[in-house]
Design goal:
InterPro entries: Cyt_P450 (IPR001128), Cyt_P450_CS (IPR017972), Cyt_P450_E_grp-I (IPR002401), Cyt_P450_sf (IPR036396), Cytochrome_P450_Monoox (IPR050196)
Keywords: Heme, Iron, Metal-binding, Monooxygenase, Oxidoreductase
Protein name: Cytochrome P450
Number of helices: 19
Largest sheet: 4 strands, mixed
Family: Belongs to the cytochrome P450 family.
Radius of gyration: 21 Å
Bound molecules: protoporphyrin IX containing FE
Number of domains: 1
Strand order of the largest sheet: 1-2-7-4
Cofactor: heme
Distance between the termini: 52 Å
Number of strands: 9
Strand content: 5-15%
Structural class: alpha+beta
Helix content: 55-70%
CATH architecture: Orthogonal Bundle
Length: about 450
Amino acid sequence: MLVLLKALARLSGWSSLVCRLAVVILRNPLRLLGWKAYERWLLTLRLPVGGLALANDPAIVEAVLRNRDGVFPKSSHLTAILRPLIGEGVFGQGGGEAVKDMRKAYFLALAGVPGEEVERVSRRLSREYLARWQAAPSGVAVPRELSRLTIDIVTECLLGGRFTPAQSEAFVDAFFTYHRRASAFLLMCSGNALRDTPALLGRMELEPVGLSLREMIQERFVTPWLDRPEAAWPPFHRQVLDTLRRTSGEVADRAVLEARLLDEVAVMILAGHETTASVLSWLLWELSGGALPDGDRPQAESVDALIQESLRLYPPIAFFLRDVEAVTEFRGKTLAAGSAILVSPWTLQRHKGLWQDAERFCPARWLRKEGAATHDRNTFVPFGGGSRLCPGKHFAGIEMQAIVEEIVSGATLRRVDSTPPRPLGALTTRPHYDFRLAFGAP
Ligand code: HEM
């Protein structure tokens, strides 16, 4: 297996076509592990680039996510995959003081938008989208439409406006392309990461797509603000500027400021939409397949149970990949410095030793308190934890509740496509294709 993976990565460095094929083959690395990923507490394997450990043991999850001594920074492979899109933006950075400072800007900007405002915007835009979906008798491509809706909600709440419909269509198409081309796992399969990474990244052809996405963001959400007085900037832009002023002297240079602002605005748009859109896509797929008894319109409490169960079974960020910076021992196994450790909400939240009927979509478990009472910050981690906990967790909760309530009270759902979606798996678990649903009158 090791030799095969290495050969695949080598060949990928020579041709874009082979590289694309390899990305498809390796898209969901969990498939290589099979049942073991859902039953073992710690699995170690060797990749050409070094050791990789998959941790399902809650005590190890605690140690890795809390990362108190900075021993488990975010993986440098992930940084490489994301750079063409978010530059130096916080999401792709390993850790340390600069990350802590910039994360504060996110928390402050998000705290500055009242929950009622998030709910109001989410409901208004959901109703607008739903009306359009109901006017399309042959159905709409749901993951794509949810991406557009959630981008609009995040940008309207935090970045001072929305894309035009044409810009939003172009943006989600380009982002889906980026997603289909990116594979941190393929980078890890190359024998000599430092030497092979640039060639492999080149063959993935992320640069041109990343560039076009960045241009769209810059044109709509960055450059126009720079020509206006700072007091008129959206709160997020001002928080980022304050942080840059405190931590680096370079903001006097407009080009540098523009580039750094663009990096963080890109993070906010990408982290703030793809996750929510992915969970909701799976939820709507489940609902359209009869996850609710006929005619049953869920109340607020059960909408929450639907969302929790979707976050459990379909966590959008399936892999928290971290570098191991110092020799570490877990469960009697030694992880060498330079190896990698993976906490995966996908395996943790489907682990047979932690969940009853783990594979079944069963919102009722949250109403019975079986979910909430028996699971804690190390066994239910869709929003991550510790030093890299998602800053948008509260925002996302209000937003998803509002969107789902609008949809289940305002429409009936019917499947147009019957092929069950699979998780794409590279950056997020969004469905591998844009399945269509028809939205009828309630
Ligand atoms: C269902 C919705 C969401 C889920 C499940 C989710 C999950 C996550 C997770 C797991 C991480 C950390 C990844 C890691 O440790 O490697 C993260 C980071 C982040 N999320 Fe979310 N997220 C969601 C929605 C949002 C929203 C709505 C926003 C903003 C409005 C947001 C903003 C961010 C940002 C800025 C980061 C980067 C933080 C950092 O790099 O330290 N997220 N999210």
